Amino acid sequence: MWVSRRTDYATRALLVLALEGGGPLKLEALARRTAVPQSVLEQVMPTMRTAGLVRSERGPSGGYRLNHPPDEITLERVVRLFQGPLAPISCATRHNPEPCPMLVGCTLRDVWSEIRDATIALLGGVTFADLAARAGGAWTDPSQIVLVPNPATGGTSR
Q1: With 60 as the cut, is the pLDDT of residue 9 above it?
Q2: pTM of this prediction?
Q3: Taking a C-beta distance cutoff of 8 angstroms, is the pair 115, 123 a contact?
Q4: What is the DSSP track for 21-74?
Q5: Is 89 helix (H, G, I), strand (E, B) or coil?
Q6: How far apart are CA 70 and CA 61, in angstroms?
Q7: What is the distance between the alpha carbons of residues 26 and 114, in angstroms, rounded to a whole number?
Q8: pLDDT band, very low/low/confident/very high, at 113 (cuts 50, 70, 90)
Q9: Beta-bridge partners for 65
């Protein structure tokens, strides 16, 4: 399964909100902390708001916040929102599978269905509370990272 950039950016934004105790965070702060272009978040956040994952609050102390506790938001829900069905091939979807042109029972469909089920089980078992706990603390704002020259390797390090 290939995860689109919009899915990646949406999951980053939700994780930052989970790490911040649910928000609110202004779009500019979300963009900076996730290293996502603000113009892309301006497209992603309304989709998540419409889906009920986040809500927006106006005013000087407003911004985006989680609409549910992070332990109620699964990675599966977000991936489905931006990716659509999780089946790797159209004949293995659970709802309205594409008819198979094979006349004899196709053994490939069984494998594709197992992959679909494993993907759903994995993504459905991970919440944003789990991801926030794994992070071990708030993400470092990328603009605050200072790189210093490392003469031993010729590169840089934090």
Answers
A1: yes
A2: 0.79
A3: no
A4: TT--B-HHHHHHHHT--HHHHHHHHHHHHHTTSEEEE-STT-EEEESS-GGG-B
A5: coil
A6: 21
A7: 41
A8: confident
A9: 55
